[in-house]
Amino acid sequence: MEVKLLRVTEEGIDLVAEAAKVSGVFSTQSAKEIVELIVDNDYSSVLEHIDLTFDISRISVALSRELLEHRIASHTARSTRYMEEKGFGYYVPRELERKGKEEEARIYREAMKNAKEAYTKLRELGIAKEQARYVLPLALHTHYVVTMNVRSLLNFFMLRLCVRAAPEIRELTMRMYKICLEEYPAIFSNIWCRGFTLGVCPENEVRPNECPFKKILPKKQEIKGKFEERAKRIIEKELKTF
Questions:
Q1: Is 160 marked active-site?
Q2: Of the listed 109, 133, 160, 194, which one is catalytic?
Q3: Which CATH number fits domain 2-76+142-197: 3.10.129.10, 3.40.50.300, 3.30.1360.170, 3.40.630.10?
Q4: How far is CA 62 from CA 70, 169, 222, in A?
């Protein structure tokens, strides 16, 4: 997997601060203070003025489908309809690279070999790329360009930095996060998974033992349970006013 930054909005901190002043943020604060206030209080719409474009290569088609779930972004992917895929590269799950998984790895690689042979044979028989591509596996390496604004990136990081995220997309997220942190530390230094960012973990009982925050962050259901009944009565009262 390779991740490169193609383009980033320059002087984004000043841009966001100036935009925030339009909506009423005190002009006496510095640009950095305004941005920190925005991030801390989740006044995040103004962060959409900053865009980052990433070039992502040697990821699987399966991962690219997960990226498409993040719809507030611009997506461009290598086309299997127009590009030749003979001798394609593919993603190998880390679990198959562990000691003791030799047989499982053999079965996996054999499946990739069979897919390559089937695709190549179909192409040699004159089958068009857009038809032959249906034998290609989800593990197929693809090339991807994605542009996200900072608000979308914050959501992306909060979801995909969680230890429960699929391993390949979590690795991608880590690489993208490091780039964002280097470009705009004032925005991203206090952002991680939802549990860290919100101070309470919505994963509740499904948090695995490898979660580094499991012993220090409360579960959402624990916090909500303390006030839920009283809050429901308040909501009922509020509804009666309309």
A1: yes
A2: 160
A3: 3.30.1360.170
A4: 14, 9, 35
